């Protein structure tokens, strides 16, 4: 995660984590949140599908979704930024 600071807010970029050995990409199949939604740490953020499995990616932080950068149907790779989250300081 890359963090940038503002006067009273912290924005965190949420990236695709390591998925599995020899799996480097996935398809975004379903967003459980939209811009402006509050989410708890470990809450369901997005559903990803690989050629081997479909799984939910939990939120690594508690905060508010500031931007969704990948849409449903997009192919994403490990390390891609998929959304930004605002965490109040």
Structure description:
- With 89 residues, the chain is mostly beta strands.
- It has a single domain, classed as RNA polymerase II/Efflux pump adaptor protein, barrel-sandwich hybrid domain (OB fold (Dihydrolipoamide Acetyltransferase, E2P), Beta Barrel), CATH 2.40.50.100.
- The chain contains no helices and nine strands.
- It has strands spanning 2-5, 9-15, 25-31, 38-39, 44-49, 54-58, 63-68, 75-77, 81-88.
- A five-stranded antiparallel sheet has the order 1-2-9-7-4, with no helix packed on it. The protein has a four-stranded antiparallel sheet with strand order 6-5-3-8, with no helix packed on it.
Labels describing this entry:
89 residues; OB fold (Dihydrolipoamide Acetyltransferase, E2P)
Set out the fold topology.
Elements: E1 2-5, E2 9-15, E3 25-31, E4 38-39, E5 44-49, E6 54-58, E7 63-68, E8 75-77, E9 81-88
Antiparallel strand pairs: 1-2, 2-9, 3-5, 3-8, 4-7, 5-6, 7-9
Helical content band = under 10%
CATH level-4 homologous superfamily: RNA polymerase II/Efflux pump adaptor protein, barrel-sandwich hybrid domain
Number of domains: 1
The overall average pLDDT, rounded, is: 90
Topology order in helix (H) and strand (E) letters = EEEEEEEEE
| Class by SSE composition | mainly beta
Unreliable sequence segments = none
Quote the beta fraction. Answer: over 45%
Q: Could you say which overall geometry the principal axes of the C-alpha atoms support?
A: elongated
Q: How would a textbook summarize the main sheet?
A: 5 strands, antiparallel
Give the name of the CATH architecture.
Answer: Beta Barrel
Rg, rounded, reads 13 Å
